[in-house]
Write a structure and sequence with these properties.
Helices cover 4% and strands 51% of the residues.
């Protein structure tokens, strides 16, 4: 039974703490489309972002996460489209997914809009049993070799945005899909429970050159207690930014980013672990590279972004 529990944790936990199945990103505020489909098309330009996360440096087989996303608006700005692919690797397990999103944007007034979004995709779970050493070799919970299962996924989101502030709510993994890669007759099936995310941010133009932006991110998945993140981001002349984040019961993050030109951005974050893992790990690294594709006739922003 202990072996079953260990395998279930590896399979379903992802790259965050063992109570969270979805991988988390320290620079979530730079690409919030990954956590909310309603963000698609809210910024008036197409944007592609690649993220590479290496978690808990110094720990063997620690989580690694890679994502590539693209999202943008329709010509009339009333709809948004997007999609992303990702791979999350933890030891002998791999979780790979592809997701497509659609959002519809409603104009409340000249400065305020609200969008509703949905997303749907496929997730593939894989486990390489050859990389697992068991104490009881004849107790075959899973077969030797690679086992995999393909399951559907879906979610929805709400996004209220203004040039100075925004609020978002999203619920991924609404299907509560069941996953079982084990071969044993015992019950080893796991469920992908629904998650609930809420984000909010406000931009303060403190001087002509500096913008200060506090950001809040709330995460909940039953039966785990609510987790919160608080971020303070400071931008200089809309070209360079730094930020600091406190993640409840997990880490403190420092990040730095800048525009290479009007279209390309680079950002790096380092997590300083605050749990007992700090005795074994040097923290986590996250690199993000982004590209914007503007409409040649118009280069406007309609929602707070990474600037």
């Amino acid at each position: 039974m202990k072996k079953i529990i260990i395998i279930s944790c590896l399979l379903l936990c992802g790259s965050s703490v063992f109570s969270q199945q979805l991988p988390h990103f320290s620079q979530y505020f730079l690409n919030d489309f990954l956590i909310n489909p309603a963000v698609a098309g809210s910024r008036g330009y197409f944007e592609g972002v690649s993220t590479h996360r290496y978690q808990w440096e110094g720990i063997t087989d620690a989580p690694r996460t890679y994502t590539l996303s693209v999202q943008g608006p329709s010509k009339n700005r009333k709809m948004g489209f997007g999609g992303y692919i990702f791979t999350d690797i933890v030891g002998p397990t791999r979780r790979t997914g592809i997701d497509l999103s659609y959002a519809y944007h409603l104009k409340i007034n000249d400065k305020l809009k609200v969008s509703l979004g949905i997303n749907a995709g496929l997730l593939q779970f894989m486990i390489d049993a050859s990389k697992i050493t068991l104490r009881e070799q004849d107790d075959a919970v899973i077969s030797n070799g690679v086992q995999s299962e393909l399951v559907p996924d879906a979610g929805f989101g709400l996004f209220v945005y203004h040039k100075k502030y925004y609020f978002g709510f999203s619920a991924p993994q609404l299907l509560n899909t069941k996953v079982d890669l084990a071969d044993a007759e015992e019950e080893t099936e796991g469920t992908l429970p629904s998650h609930f995310f809420a984000t909010a941010g406000y931009k303060f133009q403190v001087t002509e050159s500096f913008i200060v932006e506090p950001i809040v991110f709330l995460k909940y998945v039953s039966p785990v207690p609510l987790q919160y993140e608080g971020t303070l981001k400071i931008t200089y002349k809309e070209r360079v930014w730094i930020s600091g984040t406190y993640r409840d019961r997990d880490a403190i993050t420092a990040s730095l980013g800048f525009f290479l030109n009007k279209s390309f951005t680079v950002a790096y974050a380092h997590d300083f672990t605050t749990t007992n893992l700090k005795n074994y790990s040097n923290g986590s690294h996250e690199l993000m590279i982004g590209a914007r594709f503007y409409n040649k006739k118009k280069k406007e922003k309609t929602a707070p972004s990474i600037e």
